[in-house]
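Hello forum,

I keep getting stuck at the same step: I have a sequence, I want structure tokens, and every attempt I make locally crashes halfway through. Rather than fight my setup again tonight, could one of you with a working pipeline run this one for me? It's a single chain of 380 residues.
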Amino acid sequence: MRVLTVVGTRPQFIKAARLSRALRQAHEELLVHTGQHYDDAMSASFFRDLEMGEPDVNLEVGSGSHALQTAEMLRRLEPVAAEYRPDGVVIYGDTNSTLAAAVVAAKLIYPDGRGPWLAHVEAGLRSFNRMMPEERNRIVSDHLADLLLAPTETAMGHLAREGLADRARLVGDVMVDLFQWASARSDPHLLQAARERPGYLLVTLHRAENVDDPGRLAAWVASLVDLAQDWPMIFPVHPRTRAAMQRAGYEPLRAVTAVEPVGYLEMVALERHAAAILTDSGGVQKEAYLAGVPCLTLRTETEWPETVSAGWNRILGNDPGLLRSAVTEALAADRSRARPDLFGDGRAAARMVAAMELHHQRNSDMPGAIALRSTEATTS
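Reply #2:
Ran it on my machine without issues. Output:
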């Protein structure tokens, strides 16, 4: 197979690290970076830590409004895809890069009448918050995709309710593959600041609803400063959050150990050694579960409800006043309690490649021009 993979953010590169490695064992892949994330953390060391090559193509789109950013991705990605002529396109998650690549793949038709199939990794996730651009990106991408690679039974259920069951395959979560790999290598990468502060709380905060509104940001900052009087705190500060805090005059935060964004191995080490994790990141919620560390989600919803049902994650909503009591409760929880394999056994990448190979073979066996996607769905 010839596969075009499109990623645009650090979390997507992290997920692609394992799947691209599995794909390239027997197939050809062109890895395209849209440039949606373009901070200094996307350096050669980042790719070296993940044991993956740098992207083959960088579209260098950069920031902008959702409409402008997505439109520029469409404009720059389409000729790359048309020239490469992939058999299939792989997208990840819920970003504008995902949406743009889904639209390009869905509309691309080759001179012989065929077009590439589209595979969506992390298909079926739903927060049910339509105010989140990510939620809309997920839904559109799932409905355009030909092959839906779902990480959990919950995701499969969401896809079935939307009439997409015939396109869906339960493969597990590729983040489990990578987390297992990284966990065995992460301890030497633990920050000195963390080594000096055992029992620390790990905090990440970056979503627009938390940091772009000055009032809400002020409330979260006040609660974090209050917590830091009693518990050590490590806070890798996202560039978006740092800019918002600087505008509001919150730097430096008293008693909070704020650090620059860290690489993946450093982050896994921080997660594994934390006493508890406070985050508004979907990925960090899941990694907290994999690490066996209690998590408090600073949002009103989650894409990973399984972690809440299992008792390892608590949704705090928009009330920073709940933070102190929630932290106290989380730290008192029994960390030896049950933690089922909700996200698979660490072999998701191999299952994804196998699902793509089977879909590609069935698609290739179809005579004449490519069939309508609705017809493909019934034969996949």
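Residues 368-380 have pLDDT under 50 and may be disordered. If your local run keeps crashing, start a new thread with the error log.
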